[in-house]
Design a protein that fits this description.
Elements: H1 2-39, H2 45-64, H3 67-98
């Protein structure tokens, strides 16, 4: 039995590698389609076209179960998503810099997180939350 396992070890390894790559491609296809539905309207047309082209190529490679082509197209698709993500991140940063009312407007946040010249006294203004560590001290002096 050990001899049979040793004889089939190479074919088992190859079958496992093929299955893992096909499953990874399937997962990337699913994620890409999901993200395109969610963020597609936020992407520029050229970034979106690059993603759609790479996704189509990956689907073809997935159908053919061509491992070399799957690896190559997964790399292209990941690069396309990375470029698109950078673009979305920069756009988010640009919109955050200007803010909804622009620089110097009344909606501008102040350094103390509240209104000019005082503490944050408005109820419900809890936009800035800080996580802190604490230690409970028990007083045994009763």
């Amino acid at each position: 039995m050990k001899e049979e396992a040793a004889a089939n070890a190479e074919s088992d390894k190859k079958a496992k590698e093929e299955t893992d790559k096909v499953n990874a491609a399937d997962g990337l296809i699913f994620q890409s389609e999901k993200q395109l539905k969610e963020y597609g309207d936020k992407l520029s047309q050229d970034k979106k076209e690059a993603i759609l082209k790479a996704l189509s190529d990956l689907k073809d490679a997935h159908k053919e179960k061509d491992l070399a082509k799957i690896d190559a197209t997964m790399a292209v698709l990941n690069t396309a998503w990375q470029n698109a993500s950078e673009e979305m991140y920069k756009a988010a940063q640009e919109s955050a810099k200007g803010g909804p009312s622009g620089p110097g407007g009344e909606g501008q946040a102040h350094a103390d997180g509240g209104q000019p010249g005082g503490e944050n006294t408005q109820p419900g203004n809890d936009k800035e939350v800080t996580d802190v560590d604490f230690e409970e001290v028990k007083d045994d002096k009763k």
